[in-house]
Amino acid sequence: MRFLKQLFNFxxxxxxxxxxxxxxxxxxxxxxxxxxxxxxxxxxxxxxTITGYNFVKYFGVAKFRHRRLANWLKLIQVLSFICFILMCxxxxxxxxxxxxxxxxxxxxxxxxxxxxxxxxxSTLRSVGGLKVYVIALxxxxxxxxxxxxxxxxxxxxxxxxxxxxxxxxxxxxxLPFEIRDLxxxxxxxxxxxxxxxxxxxxxxxxxxxLVFYLLEFLKDETSTNSITVLLIVSxxxxxxxxxxxxxxxxxxxxxxxxxxPILWLVLLLTFN
Length: 272
Prior knowledge:
12 helices
């Protein structure tokens, strides 16, 4: 039983779970736009997410404690290196324009983790009020535009609405994390719960989810299945936002909230 718990914690801490979520959102984009399953795009996104997230989370730890790293962190480093190699393998299969777009997000990821100036805490995630919007922007860009650019898909109103929906959805997913971290975050971070309070943050999440759902009806092309699944996902996400609190189970956000995109994909595949 202890081994299973350690394995599960490794699954979470090594960013495999979040990578499956990003992978799921990218596949959802392909399904919604009637594009074929593209292995090179989906696998690139999956391995790039593990590489990028582990770089952001463990860069500082690996930099200053590389001589006495815990065994689990050494395993994560090995996994990250393997995923980096696989990311490069699938990146080669992508089109040139896709590489240019990916490069911009790679630079953003580096500045998000590495200090820009002389100060050690001068990263993008330390800029007051910016963190959740950067994450939402990157997730929306990766899961919507990478598959579209690689498929030479023309941009139209539906794509704009889809990208706004994705941005809003990821932003809402971040709110339970923001609430959880309220007791740890410095005041200078100016997080949404710090500025609005927990109750108003939850209200904001519900409003954003309502906008997220209603935008579906403005699209030229949608389906009953997509609308139904979107409604279910919106309700479940709203419940997780409403029941989030400062003191919460350690897996509430890191597994259940972060796994909502996976649930969305499963529902969409089931209904289709």
